[in-house]
Amino acid sequence: MSRGKQLFKRWKTEYDFKTFVNASGSLAVTTVFALYNGYLGIRHASLWYGAICVYYILLVLLRGLIIAAAKRLSLRERQEQARSRVFLTVSILLLILNVFLIPPLSLMVRQQKPVNLTLIPAIAMAAYTTYKVVMASVNLKKRQASSDSLVWMLRTINFIDALVSILTLQNTLIMVNSDGGDTGLLPLTAATSGAVWLAVSCLSVAAIVKGIRQIGNKE
Fold this sequence. Notes:
Blueprint: H1 3-13, H2 15-43, H3 47-72, H4 77-99, H5 102-109, H6 119-142, H7 149-177, H8 186-218
Helix pairs in contact: 1-2, 2-3, 3-4, 3-5, 3-7, 4-7, 4-8, 5-8, 6-7, 7-8
């Protein structure tokens, strides 16, 4: 059997291996999405899209850190402590990153809308967001099937990524369909922004608690 077929067989049958392979591929996709938001931020002088670009790039770096650590550290008992430390470190960084999500969310709630966007960005983001939310939701539930804490963390970050992309889509739809002076959407944007931020923060805190427990159990 060729190496390519062996890898494909592992991808089909081994959940952890499939997770890391898919995460490696999603790094490129998320980077493109981040750069697209950066392009919109530069072209339209939008602080919102610029901030979201930075947020997604930092998420890419966190994913890359996990993948690199998983490749370097095996599941052998003597390296489990190191994996737990990586898990806790990423969890703390993720919580800090969520704090930096507050400024762009406040911009969206206040509907600071410097320019009009066409329907094309909205359609592109709607398709991308729908795919991410569906896949991330399914895999978030499946993460319990793995005993690897780094797989658990990757699935959690993917779900947070999907939740934030909902806000990106919402802001794009507002920019397409609003003239910037309409405050009728203020309660909706405030509620959804607050709900999403609370959700991603709770996921981050839960990950920190899990990391602390892992380290404590291995001492």
